[in-house]
Amino acid sequence: MMLRSALLSLPLLLAGMAGPADAQAARTVNVTVYGSDPCPHGADDEIVVCGHRPENDRYRIPKELRRKAEDRPSEVSWASRVAGLEDAARPSRPDSCSPVGSYGQTGCWSKMIRDWSAARRQMQSDSAGVP
What we know:
The chain is an alpha+beta fold. The chain has helices at 2-23, 78-89, 108-128, and strands at residues 27-34, 46-53.
């Protein structure tokens, strides 16, 4: 019986021994400072680790968080993307001026007007010197 109570109290004894050691462990604080700023002092139980960066990086997004070139959206407006999608889907839609699809023959007039409008916009931008 006494051996059993001793074995049951062993985990409690070990937990009591580990408690004060964990309470005395120092806390580590990581800080990034820019330019010639001084590294801040921590409290008595803190270890302060300073990382220095150049002054011109103070207000920049950190390199770890910046998007890579392949992750950036392309420099194309939404209107241009929609126009491209409409042109890609146009042959299979009604009023398409193609022998495929319903009412294909009725879209020839619309296609002629779209082509004329695009050519006119191109001429106006060429004469205005707009790239």
